[in-house]
Amino acid sequence: QEEALSKADEKLEKLVSRHREANEDPDFPGEETLQEKLFKAEAYEANTEAVLQTLAQLSHEFPEIYDVLNVTLQKNGMQLPQGRAGTGQ
Prior knowledge:
With 89 residues, the chain is mostly helical. The protein has three helices and no strands. It has helices at residues 2-23, 34-61, 66-75.
């Protein structure tokens, strides 16, 4: 598995290098391209949504954590997905 992961990493680095050569902004050489930044943002958004879904499920299974979890998320500008535990939805 480690060898396969290493090969995949090498292939990814080659593809990223080719992509950057073809799409590089001359004002920012060696920087991530706009497409790379977009992919990362989409991945962060998807991961955040998955974590929030998991937290919502946990708050449903353990209602005693709902209030603390909800306050903590709100302090960080987030909220549990709709239909969350403790709201009657």
